[in-house]
Amino acid sequence: xxxxxxxxxxxxxxxxxxxxxxxxxxxxxxxxxxxxxxxxxxxxxxxxxxxxxxxxxxxxxxxxxxxxxxxxxxxxxxxxxxxxxxxxxxxxxxxxxxxxxxxxxxxxxxxxxxxxxxxxxxxxxxxxxxxxxxxxxxxxxxxxxxxxxxxxxxxxxxxxxxxxxxxxxxxxxxxxxxxxxxxxxxxxxxxxxxxxxxxxxxxxxxxxxxxxxxxxxxxxxxxxxxxxxxxxxxxxxxxxxxxxxxxxxxxxxxxxxxxxxxxxxxxxxxxxxxxxxxxxxxxxxxxxxxxxxxxxxxxxxxxxxxxxxxxxxxxxxxxxxxxxxxxxxxxxxxxxxxxxxxxxxxxxxxxxxxxxxxxxxxxxxxxxxxxxxxxxxxxxxxxxxxxxxxxxxxxxxxxxxxxxxxxxxxxxxxxxxxxxxxxxxxxxxxxxxxxxxxxxxxxxxxxxxxxxxxxxxxxxxxx
Length: 463
Prior knowledge:
elongated; about 475 residues; about 65% helix; two-stranded antiparallel ribbon; two-stranded antiparallel sheet; mainly alpha
């Protein structure tokens, strides 16, 4: 009977010992950590959460339910928001194991923090005002475009023949044609002197497709030797290559894009319509701009009539003597409007053909942002070839301060690759400031006088 009593005694002793052990707080033997290093184990005794919170409020100056408002809390109340970043540490006291801040330093830090907060608020307010202004400007622009579109649709287009030359319409024209009516205005302004019909376009397109089939087949050496230069330039491979390079950032004219076949068809049809001209690099950009604003057949009609203009025909048929005449006429007005920059170009032997050829061949559609190029096209359709050279002078006038500080290489690089962001309003202000009159002679008169004397031309261009 002694054994059960002994077991019961041992069990009770162990149970009592466990209760006693559980009643004592467990000491943490491992060293703890503070913000600025290790602390010995004796400082890491477990504390009650309420006491920790109370101690934190006392140190930071935050009053509890029964505490009066501390001076630091009044400072915090003066702030509009409670900072959540590390900059808020400026207002905190140093840890207990470091010397306290002097009053002057604490005041200095408090002022620095308040200045940072004020600057942040100022930046946010400035950005908010900027966004608001941008939104207001966009709303005003959309409203003005809507009003202008209504004016074009209801007043100008129904009475085109009588109103197209009026002062009011020309002013609206200069401000830019609304995109919704742009294609219609371009078609009317360019005209159709060639009397091309939709049926003729379909005939030319059918011939082009048939030609492409035969071109795809391997040709004999004799056929290759007999092929003319226009046939070589209008080959399917060259057109396809240029289509893939047309407005690549839009991704709509490349293989598989929605306008790839349309652009291919118009260029192919034109090579059959004008085999004497054929396909020339740069045509794809002009056709692409027309496609974005007109139906396919109407785009082809405008395209053919546009390239039939004297200036475009001179460039696309590569009439060197006539091209030099255009360059010489341009230099006459260049020297008249920008004599300092003209002299700088002469000094560095920078001739107009270096930058003008690309601008004229693509009608600025490759050189300028697309929306700005369309606005140049608006006035070009109104004023004709003169505006192409006036735009060139406007660009030179816009960047004359930059260009006068460059050498030949940098000027050529700059003009053949213009900045991506060109302020439209500033450019048109500079274009408006260009005077297309030299010694009481206008553009057409100067060009005609130069054409009569083919031997006369720019001394720089004349090689």
